[in-house]
């Protein structure tokens, strides 16, 4: 079944579908699992309960399908009917939120990588055609099935807008994934989707919502607690920044304390730095370091410094380039073991040894060179364990 034109879509009617079950619901209406009686195929039918229907979403979806974005991890839209009150999609399995609720455990890093890579591809495709999704969250990321590696799709374009109209648009999605520029009323771009994806990634990594604020003020408190204060230039540009921040006598900004606004802490974690997550999860340490590195890049206060989708796809967590460095290190150690006989003591110029091997590891900070001719007595195992400490 392919995307049909609006004229042929109008020939469809609700009687053409056999309803099997209700898949979900929201402020827009309901989503049903149905059989298209004409093609005998399973479809998902989104039915609006609003008089004006789903006109804006239908128009955006047709644009996405014209660009074949269903090939970029975006839900496939078939057609609409009933004056755009009914939208027909490919069937999907379960939302990421539903999957996390079912498993009740922190996602494996390999699964996190899979989801983030596919969502970065989706956001990259949207960026190229000038579209902002505006509501990236765990409800709007769907698993196609439950077979690993997971295949996921981005859904719900009811709040999607064109990049060119971003400054004039008012975004009112859920608090927990809301970017700072939306809270502080700065001009915004598709970078708000990357912040939201970072919040999704945080939930997959930690197992709970990073910023579970119930209003903008609580959101800012949680963000400041975890990421620190925003840069001064971000505060200065926000039209509503002074509702939340005040300038001190020393010309520094601080969050205003509104007594009684936060009577309880909704966070289910105790760390106050993303770096602490690395120490919590000591297994797969190298991969976790890259994971947190990417998460930090997604959650930048300044949207201009936030990582973009194409850069996510080139990040070491996605490319797994850190495995090559680990392999090179192991090969290096193996070569040393061949040079130094077992159970023997040898003289090693530590500084020269480090500098000779260092070009193979450009990502590390350069070690301090020992003074010329300095030699120390090292046993083989001590050299191997401390060569790059």
Largest sheet: 5 strands, antiparallel
Helix content: 25-40%
- Give the CATH architecture of the largest domain: Orthogonal Bundle
The 3D shape can be described as globular
Radius of gyration over C-alpha positions, nearest whole angstrom? 26 Å
Summed up, the helix count is: 15
CATH top level assignment of the largest domain:
Mainly Alpha
Strand order of the largest sheet: 1-2-3-5-4
- Give the distance, in angstroms, between the N- and C-terminal Cα atoms: 59 Å
- What class would the helix/strand composition place it in? alpha+beta
Secondary-structure element series:
HEEEHEEEHHEEEEHHHHEEHHHHHEHEH
**Low-pLDDT stretches:** 1-10, 332-389
Question: What is the number of strand segments?
Answer: 14
Mean pLDDT: 83
Strand content: 15-25%
CATH topology heading of the largest domain: Transferase(Phosphotransferase), domain 1
Tell me the CATH superfamily of the largest domain: Transferase(Phosphotransferase) domain 1
Query: How many domain units?
Result: 3
Detailed description of the structure:
The chain has 389 residues and is α+β, with helices and mostly antiparallel strands. The chain folds into 3 domains: 6-89, Phosphorylase Kinase, domain 1; 94-320, Transferase(Phosphotransferase), domain 1 (Orthogonal Bundle), CATH 1.10.510.10; 336-386, no CATH class. Helix content is 37%, strand content 16%. It contains 15 helices and 14 strands. The strands form 5 sheets. Strands 1-2-3-5-4 form a 5-stranded antiparallel sheet, covered by helices on one side. A 3-stranded antiparallel sheet has the order 6-8-9. Strands 7-10 form a two-stranded antiparallel ribbon. A hairpin with a 4-residue loop joins strand 4 and strand 5 (86-89). Helix 4 packs antiparallel against helix 6 (191-206) and helix 6 (191-206) runs antiparallel to helix 10 (285-298). The chain starts with 5 loop residues before the first helix and ends with a helix.
């Amino acid at each position: 079944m392919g995307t049909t034109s609006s004229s042929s879509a109008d020939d469809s009617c609700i009687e053409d579908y056999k309803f099997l079950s209700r898949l979900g619901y929201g402020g827009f209406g309901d989503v049903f699992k149905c059989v298209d009686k004409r093609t005998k195929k399973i479809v998902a039918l989104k039915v609006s309960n609003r008089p004006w229907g789903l006109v804006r979403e239908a128009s955006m979806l047709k644009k996405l399908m014209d660009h074949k974005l269903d090939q970029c991890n975006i839900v496939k839209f078939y057609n609409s009917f009933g004056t755009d009150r009914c939208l027909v999609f490919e069937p999907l399995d379960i939302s990421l939120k539903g999957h996390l609720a079912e498993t009740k455990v922190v996602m494996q890093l390999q699964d996190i990588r899979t989801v983030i890579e596919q969502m970065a591809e989706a956001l990259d495709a949207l960026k190229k055609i000038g579209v902002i999704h505006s509501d990236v969250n765990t409800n709007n990321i769907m698993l196609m099935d439950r077979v690993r590696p997971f295949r996921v799709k981005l859904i719900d374009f009811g709040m999607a807008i064109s990049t060119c109209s971003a400054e004039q648009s008012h975004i009112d999605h859920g608090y927990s994934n809301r970017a700072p520029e939306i809270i502080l009323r700065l001009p915004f771009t598709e970078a708000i989707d990357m912040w939201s994806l970072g919040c999704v990634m945080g939930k997959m990594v930690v197992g709970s919502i990073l910023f579970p604020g119930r209003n903008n003020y609580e959101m800012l408190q949680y963000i400041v607690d975890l990421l620190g204060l925003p840069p001064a230039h971000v505060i200065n540009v926000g039209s509503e920044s002074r509702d939340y921040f005040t300038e001190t006598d020393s010309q520094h900004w601080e969050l205003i304390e509104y007594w009684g606004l936060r009577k309880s802490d909704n966070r289910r974690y105790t760390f106050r730095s993303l770096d602490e997550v690395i120490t919590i999860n000591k297994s797969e340490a190298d991969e976790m370091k890259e994971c947190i590195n990417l998460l930090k890049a997604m959650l930048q206060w300044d949207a201009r410094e936030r990582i973009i989708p194409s850069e996510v796809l080139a990040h070491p967590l996605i490319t797994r380039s850190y495995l090559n460095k680990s392999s090179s290190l192991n090969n290096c150690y193996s070569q040393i073991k061949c040079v130094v006989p077992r159970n023997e003591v040898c003289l090693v110029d530590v500084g020269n040894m480090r500098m000779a091997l260092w070009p193979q590891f450009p990502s590390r900070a350069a070690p301090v060179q020992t003074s010329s001719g300095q030699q120390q007595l090292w046993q083989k195992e001590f050299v191997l364990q401390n060569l790059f400490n």
